[in-house]
Each structure stands twice: as structure tokens, then as C-alpha cells.
């Protein structure tokens, strides 16, 4: 015994064909059996035709859309602005923004409708021969970022420059700046230039300490403020 499909409605093209067969003299039961729907579906279609003159479904009789046009635009704009969002995240954003809850399948349909599809990462294979991982021939020596810092000082002027001085063994304190840079480097260089010499530093804390101020005053070195 065959099982009859229990579709709740006919497509418009099916409805018009059924209408023609009814007007041709076939019974509702015969048509229902031939297209494998219940007779009640044929009966509703015929009553609608007698009432409206049309075998097609009335406007608005279709299944209600899960989203409004504005919500569709929201999904599309959000997907375009955030390319890394998947359907689940877009579903959550829509619910948070509008209060509308839809399935992830609905989200995908709305995006597919405007040509937006998920991007899948390309898979690749890393090919290594047996024993190559620890073979010295395949090892590259590297230095990790942040492994070392070199602090140096040099003075320049329109007429020349001082030698480069490497500051070793710890940070540059005000006392070290005075003892290792001002006295042995800046003072002789200022004397060589003469009264036109003006010191310009970078306003770091060691350069502006009180003991540096005192040292510059004693050496009669003018500093640009």
C-alpha cells in the first residue's frame, strides 16, 4: 500500500493544472490520488478559485519570513564589516541588536542570497624527511626578539661630532651621565667650540637631575630649555 504525501499546499503551477483538470471533469479524489496529496488540499484550492477567480495562493498566505528586510540588511552589513564572523556570531549579533532569533541556516541563506559565503582556511602540509628535524644541516640559529639592548651616546654639532660611547653594565643614572658623559665628553667638546656652545639634550630624567644642573653650572655650560 502506497503512502500519500501530506503536503499542505500546492505550488501555483500545480494549482492551475488542478483547476484545468477539475474543469475538465475529473473528481477531486482522482486528482488528489494522481498527484499524491490529500483531497482536502484540492478542496481548499477549488474553493479559493470559486471565491477569488484565481487558483494561486493569496498574497501573504506563504510562510512568514524569519527576518525583515531591515534585519537582512543588518546581517549583510555586519558580515561585510566583520569578515571573520561565522553564522553563529552573526546570529548572536542580530538577536542582541533587534531581539530577533533565527537559525544559523537562515543567516547563511540571507548571506548566500547576496553572494557572501564562508571562507575556509587553506590546508597545507609541512613535508620533512625522516630525521631532518634534529639534523644540524636543517637547523637555523636565531636570536629571539628582546634578547639584548645596547645603550649608546654621541654628540653632534654643525662642525663635527663626538666619538660613540657605549654605556655598559646597567642603566644610565644621573651620576653615570655626569661622570661618564658630561665630564669626559661634553665639557671638552664645549671648550673646543667656545662661547657659542649650547647643550641640547632629550629631557630624559638623568639629564635633568639636580647634580647634573650643578655640574653644568660649575662648568659654565649653557643648556637649551
From TrEMBL:
Residues 72-122 form the Transposase Tc1-like domain. GO terms for molecular function: DNA binding. One of its GO terms (cellular component) is nucleus. Its main location: nucleus. One of its GO terms (biological process) is DNA integration. InterPro entries: Homeodomain-like_sf, RNaseH_sf, Transposase_Tc1-like. It holds the Pfam family HTH_Tnp_Tc3_2. It is found in: Nucleus. SUPFAM superfamilies: Homeodomain-like. This is Transposable element Tcb2 transposase. The gene is X975_01565.
Amino acid at each position: 500500500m502506497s503512502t500519500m504525501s501530506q503536503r499542505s499546499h500546492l505550488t501555483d503551477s500545480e494549482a492551475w493544472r488542478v483547476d484545468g483538470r477539475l474543469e475538465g471533469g475529473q473528481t477531486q479524489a482522482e486528482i488528489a490520488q494522481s498527484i499524491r496529496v490529500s483531497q482536502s488540499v484540492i478542496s481548499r484550492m477549488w474553493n479559493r478559485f470559486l471565491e477569488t477567480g484565481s487558483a494561486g495562493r493569496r498574497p501573504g498566505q506563504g510562510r512568514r519570513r524569519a527576518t525583515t528586510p531591515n534585519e537582512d540588511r543588518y546581517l549583510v552589513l555586519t558580515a561585510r564589516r566583520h569578515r571573520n564572523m561565522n553564522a553563529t556570531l552573526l546570529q548572536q549579533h542580530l538577536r542582541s541588536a533587534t531581539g530577533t532569533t533565527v537559525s544559523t541556516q537562515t543567516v547563511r541563506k540571507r548571506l548566500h542570497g547576496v553572494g557572501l559565503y564562508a571562507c575556509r582556511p587553506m590546508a597545507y602540509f609541512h613535508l620533512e624527511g625522516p630525521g631532518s628535524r634534529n639534523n644540524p644541516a636543517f637547523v637555523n640559529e636565531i636570536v629571539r626578539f628582546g634578547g639584548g639592548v645596547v645603550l649608546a651616546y654621541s654628540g653632534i654639532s654643525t662642525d663635527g661630532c663626538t666619538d660613540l660611547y657605549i654605556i655598559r653594565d646597567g642603566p644610565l643614572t644621573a651620576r653615570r651621565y655626569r661622570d661618564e658623559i658630561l665630564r669626559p665628553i661634553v665639557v671638552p667638546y664645549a671648550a673646543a667650540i667656545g662661547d657659542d656652545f649650547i647643550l641640547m639634550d632629550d629631557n630624559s630624567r638623568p639629564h635633568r637631575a639636580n647634580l647634573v644642573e650643578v655640574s653644568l653650572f660649575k662648568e659654565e655650560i649653557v643648556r637649551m630649555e
